[in-house]
Amino acid sequence: MxxxxxxxxxxxxxxxxxxxxxRPEVRNALSQAVADDLxxxxxxxxxxxxxxxxILRGKGxxxxxxxxxxxxxxxxxxxxxxxDIVRFNADFGRLMKAVHALPQLFVVLIEGAAMAGGxxxxxxxxxxxxxxxxxxxxxxxxxGIPPAQITPVVMxxxxxxxARRLLLTAARFDGTEAARLGFAHFVVEDAQAxxxxxxxxxxxxxxxxxxxxxxxxQIINAxxxxxxxxxVQFAAERFADCxxxxxxxxxLAAFAEKRQPEW
Length: 263
Prior knowledge:
With 263 residues, the protein is α/β, with parallel strands linked by helices. 48% of the residues lie in helices and 15% in strands.
């Protein structure tokens, strides 16, 4: 069951859940409350078998402008203990862990802007679709702080060389360049095309079995955690579990009978 939350908007249509950042008045900046709600929703999703696809996007034509700078100044620099700031920053790792654990296909739709932590979140999506004119930047160093928790995911997403340049210079770029760098998979012209491309991707992914997709995501994640024989064994066990499951029985039967599988 999905948790009751106050700082995001959830819309479920059939097997698809759209999670909306819903603070357009501050360009969907990530406050502590927003981050906590997002983590709670993501952590609940592995238990939601009826949901196959998860979309993250922002209201008001903006994906996410990064951390809530007003909160940084009034709370963190207004008397907060150092340990509290450390805990808040480390909690961003909770979001990353929750995204990695999602069995569903996780799609991020970017328009307007994806800055700092917002850009970091998109780095761990399965599929990213952006408008060509969306604005991107890893702005943290211009504020006197490091991009602490998102540095590793940016480096994994686009490679060490380009990540170093962008993390250290806070260079700005658009959606077309984001795709060239490897942040985004698809570039479209506007919000209407963004939604159309998303529907196309979901229709394509719906041909795959939910359990097989979940197992494939586990193997993908294991590549960073296991080596050699351990990775071989892990992948083989996931293959055997699926092969003996109902989905593979249905998939192979459908193939033999020249029909679409039912899942």
